[in-house]
Amino acid sequence: MPWLRRALVPRVAWMVKEVADAGWTWEEVAAWLTSTEAPEHGVHRPTGLLGHRLRGATAVPGWTTPADRARAVERWRDSRSAARARHDRTATAAARGRLVVPPPIELGW
């Protein structure tokens, strides 16, 4: 996770201990993190966000068994592939001059 690059390794290790002990892979953790919301009150540290998102993850229905997590990872990969494909199509269309951009709206103030 790029947003954790400056975090202290021992703190990150402490935050991921529960999922690591449950045998989760990095892809399962990444899929879980993208499926959860940030806290409403905000966070001060990236590790705080990690801790908030991982709290209780191993007990959530649909994520408790390796088979459940494998299905979730597959959905996560599919969504990333779809997003990449959309991005590639837009970039290709823009490069070819085929991307139609609507004219700016005149407010008439």
Low-confidence stretches: none
SSE-based structural type: mainly alpha
Helix proportion of residues, in percent?
A: 55-70%
The largest pleated sheet is described as: none
Q: How large is the share of residues in beta strands?
A: under 5%
Secondary structure tally: strands = 0
**Terminal residue distance:** 46 Å
**SSE string, helices as H and strands as E:** HHHHH
Q: What is the residue-averaged pLDDT? A: 82
Rg, rounded, reads 19 Å
User: Count of helices?
Assistant: 5
Shape label: extended
Top keywords for this entry?
extended; mainly alpha; 109 residues; 0% strand
How would you characterize the overall build of this protein?
By secondary structure, this protein is mainly alpha-helical. 55% of the residues lie in helices and 0% in strands. Helix 3 packs across helix 5. The longest helix is centred in the last third of the chain and has 30 residues.
Summarize the helices and strands and which ones pair or pack.
Elements lengths: L8 H7 L1 H5 L4 H9 L11 H9 L11 H30 L14
Helix pairs in contact: 3-5
Question: Quick recap of the structure?
Answer:
The protein has 109 residues and is an all-alpha fold. The protein is built from five helices and no strands.
